[in-house]
Amino acid sequence: MNKPLPIWRRSGVDLRLLLMSVLLIVMGVVFNIFSGGVFLSPENLYNVAQQTAVVGIVATVMVLVIVARHIDLSVGSVMGFVGVLIAYLQYTSGWSWPTACLAGLAVALLVSIYQGWLTAVLGVPSFVVTLGGLMSFRGAAFLVADGKTQPVSDEFFQRLGGGYDGAIGVTATWVLTGIVALVLLFRMVQKRRALQRYEMPTESLTVDLMFTAVPIAVLVVFAWAMNHYQISGKDAPQGIPIPVLIWAVVGIVLSFIVHRTRFGRYVFAMGGNPDAAELVGIPVKRVTLMLFALLAVLVTIAAIVSIARLNAGTNSLGTGMELYVIAAAVIGGTALAGGSGSIFGSVLGALIMQSLDSGMLLLDVAIGKRMVIVGQVLIIAVVFDVLYRKKFGDR
Length: 395
What we know:
- By secondary structure, the protein is mainly alpha-helical.
- It has 16 helices and 2 strands.
- The model has no long low-confidence stretch (mean pLDDT 89).
């Protein structure tokens, strides 16, 4: 007689993501205790949220790159190159910020298509191509402005970075939270009706409500925290920072692409078995080029958010970011062997990485120790992924 499946399996919950969520909560509690209550303060949570957004934006598409059995080690350098170029065009050349951003996007597309062409058409391993890009485009970032920092002063552009006026305010935050909560409840009801229509088994209403109430509760707590952070000199609290909203929109769009489009299905098919994917007619080369082009778009968005937050384009922009982006994807359950991964997992991974870094900074951990810990966390995440797949497969 077969044993009944555990509730988390029947409800379609990924155990790895559940464990990562628990780990994030435990980390927050531990850091909060040792920092004397600073870590979970609204001010620190606001800073963590807007800082995580840059890594999170790129990590969402890095999931798809790794799923397709590729890697991009040059994302930090390309982001620095594009960011300095956008700032240079605004400050030195006097371009408007939309025009400068479009020019930056065009350059990023050229870079990614070049690297994608070498990988997809010539068959050069993406690891080698992007390793060369890591060095080359970091040098290009220096060449653009001759090593000089390029400040940006447009007030609207600066808001995209989540600074002084870079949030949506209290009222809009609560309205947005309420809308998202209603959408989650509607999706739950819609899913139950669909299962009942096709006479498929459903969980009890209590269980479904519980699984829906948890993310709603997290959103409410997050909104409350953002609405209790007030910058000195302002009359009202900040609310949700704009970079987080950009990250959320990127995540939703990428989730739609993964689950609802042919392109998304092709990427996962390629990662599962590239040879079989080509035999069944999937245009592997074209999909790979499209994937690198999508990466260019999100790297440009991340560059815009980053220089808007710093109010300048600097040569060090994005240095070491490739480690955090890849780590976020892997910690979130993306298999380095390809074939499986999730956008939501990258969100959790990015939050874990940034929370770890922020917590160690608050505890005044030396930079050498921080680097050792971050590197070992990445190794532990890969070991956990290997052991999990041996035990449960890709379920």
